[in-house]
Design a protein that fits this description.
This protein is mainly alpha-helical. The longest helix is centred in the first third of the chain and has 35 residues, at 120-154. Helix 12 packs antiparallel against helix 13. 61% of the residues lie in helices and 5% in strands. Strands 5-6-7 form a three-stranded antiparallel beta sheet, with no helix packed on it.
Length: 446
Amino acid sequence: MEYALLGVVVPLLGCLFSAAYCIRPECSIMQEIEEERSQCLAELIRDNQTSGCRRQWDNITCWPEAEVGEVVVRPCPKFFRFLTTFLGNVTRNCTSQGWTDVYPTPYAVACGYDSNSTPGEEQTSFYGTVKTGYTIGHTLSLIALTAAMIILCLFRKLHCTRNYIHMHLFMSFIMRAIAVFIKDVILFESGESEHCFVSSVGCKAMMVFFQYCVMANFFWLLVEGLYLHTLLVISFFSERKYFWWYILIGWGAPSVFITAWTIVRIYFFDVGCWEEIVESSFWWIIKTPILVSILVNFILFICIIRILVQKLHSPDIGHNETSQYSRLAKSTLLLIPLFGIHYIMFAFFPDNFKAEVKLVFELVVGSFQGFVVAVLYCFLNGEVQAELKRKWRRWHLERFLGSDMKYHHPSLGSNGTNFSTQISMLTKCSPKTRRCSGFQAEFSLV
C-alpha cells in the first residue's frame, strides 16, 4: 500500500497558482515522506538489535526499535498540517510476532482528518474552476491573436512601427498561452509525481521556456507603454532606431534574467522540475524585473492619462465637457489591457494576501488579456477595418469583372489601361488619406 494514503490526500489539496508559476502541492508531501524514509532506512542499517521489533518504515511513519510488550506512540506525519490543524498520535504494539497494526486506524482518522468537515473539496473545486477559467481565456486569446497576426502580416498597408510593436506583443501572448498549455500537460495531466525528485532535462527546459514567455510578455507590455509615451512626448524621433531598442528590451532583457536564473538553479537548487518556488533570493532574479516592469508601466499609464486630460482641455478641442470626459474614459479603458494595469492591484502584496481573489485576477482575468488586446487593437481598429473593407470590395470587383470577361474579349481602353489597372486605380488611396499619426491610429476607437 505504498503511498496509498496520498490517493486521499492529494486530490484535496488542489493546486496553488500565481501569475508566473504553478506548484504541485503533492511535491511537498512526497518530499517530506521521502526525507523521512531515507532517514529511517539509514538508521535501520545502523541498528544492531536482535530481539524485539526492529525499526520499520510503513511508507508513512518511521517506527523505532522496541522491546516485546512495549507500546510505541508516534505523532502524526507532518504533511497532515495541509489538511487539519489537529495533529493526533498513532500507536503500535511490539509483540513476539512483530509489530501490530496502527491504532487508531486508518491514519486519516487518527490524525484528525474528517472528509465531511475539511474544506479540501471546496478548495479543489475552486482551483479546478480557476484552471478551467484560465484555460478558456488562453484558448480564446490564442485564436484571436493568431487571426490578428495573420491580418497584420498579410496587409502591407498595415506595416508600420506601431503595428510591428503590436505584433511582437501578440506573439508574446501567443507564446505565453502555449507555454501554459505545455506546462499543464507535463505537470498536471500526466498524473506522475516523479518530477518532485528527479526530472528530465526536457521538463526543466519547459519551465525555463515558461518563465521566459511570462517575463517577455510583461516586457512587451512595458514596450507598448514606452512607445506610446514617447509618441506623445517627443515630436520627432527615429522610429526605426527606437524600434531596435524595443526589440532588445522585449526579447533581449528577459533572456538575460532567465539565463541567470537557470544558471543559479543548476548550481545551487537543482531540485525537481524547477516548478516549485522557494522563498530565497534566487526567485527574485525573476520576480524583480517583472515587478519593475509593472511599476514603470503604471507610472507611464498615469503620465499618459495626464497628457490626454491636457489635450482634451485644449482650446483646439471644440467639444463640450461631457464629450471630453467620455473620450477620456474610453481612452483610459483602451489603455488598461494594453498596459496590463490590472497586475498592479496585487503586485506588491504578499503572496498569501487575498490569495483567492489574487488567483482570479492574475490567472483568469489575465488569461483574457490577449483576447481583449487583439479585439481592441486589431479587429476594432479603424485602419484594419478600412483595409479589410477595401480588400473585400476589390475581391468582389475582380470577381464581377472576371465573370464579365468570360463573355467579352478583354480590350484596352482609350487611355491604354486594362481592367486590372482600373481596379488598382479604384482602390488606390491618396497619400493624404494614408497619412495619419500613430497617436490618432492608436485611439481610433475613441
